[in-house]
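To whoever is covering the structure queue this week,

Two jobs came back overnight. Logging them here so there's a record in the thread.

Job A:
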Amino acid sequence: MTFRSGNPAVDRYIVEGYDTVRGMSSRLAATICGHIVRRQSELGINGHIAEIGTFEGRFFIAMALGLAPGERALGIDTFNWPNEGVLDLFHAHCARHGLARPVRVPQLPQLVLTAATFRIN
């Protein structure tokens, strides 16, 4: 059974690119959240998204591809595990999967211990 978010860019990434980016989230989780972002946009609920615990960007890319024009994505991580090359991998994955809109990525100290994604208004 194939689930769809209803957003062609998100669905294409989940089918064709999701497994090429390392991460812990599932295709089902990305599909459900992609659907929620799309549905909120249809209802006139807009705003930016943020993910804490972005790692290489697997889930982040799916959410960012679902944003409407003018909305932005914020990825937060230490970007130092398992090595200092994670931030470069993150940027490469974003570019490879077509994230042309501005992406903001602050590196935080080890204080960030939880992972969450939320919509900011």
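Job B:
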Amino acid sequence: MVPAGFAHGFSTLEPDKRVAYKVSDVWVPDVERAIRWDDPALAIDWQLPPGGPTLSGKDAVAPLFADQPDLF
């Protein structure tokens, strides 16, 4: 379980997969945040296939972690 307020991300290792997850409350777009998936400061090894990831529009333009507003 990912605690409320913590960043989380998903990567599948097979093509054409869907990810479903349970949330603790209704979605409120005005408070949603995103962190750039390939932020070099985070150095996450996503083990991506050749050709790279398929991203949502929101994730494709997400800012770096260091550029996030103070969330707390």
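Note for Job B: The chain has a mean pLDDT of 85.

Please reply-all if you pick these up so we don't duplicate work.
Q.
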